[in-house]
Amino acid sequence: MKNTRPDPSNPPKLLDQLRARIRTMHYSIRTEEVYTDWVRRFILFHRKRHPQNMGVAEVEAFLSYLANERHVSSSTQNQAKAALLFLYKQVLNIDLPRLENITNPKPSQHLPVVLTPIGLAFGFDVRAVRSCEAAGLTC
């Protein structure tokens, strides 16, 4: 049987430590996958520097990059921020000061679609609405 005790001379890699901590805290498997991916992207963005050797400035730079260059939504940026804060606080035991110099993504420019009561009554059937209008009804 294989020895399952950790070898003190060969500590687990950072992403393995992250996964273990997430599992210990009973987060979902999807959260584990997403947080691991964001931490991996963060490390690659900073040319494979270890997060232990980085701080607030690097976290802010990465989150601002996501907003400015990658044009991610606010919820995506918040997810990346949550993953990095989890890494620093729960895995590395480092309390980061408040992140204040982050560029937030631009708000969405999508306009809501307004439906008329007749459009709702026909269940969004465009042909029925057009025939309604053709009959001289207000649709």
TrEMBL record:
Say which species the protein is native to: Acidithiobacillus thiooxidans ATCC 19377
PROSITE patterns in the cross-refs: CB
One of the entry's Gene Ontology molecular-function terms is: DNA binding
Q: Which UniProt keywords apply?
A: DNA integration, DNA-binding
All copies of the Core-binding (CB) domain together span 12-92
Q: Name one GO biological process term.
A: DNA integration
Encoded by which gene? int_1
Name this protein carries in UniProt: Integrase/recombinase
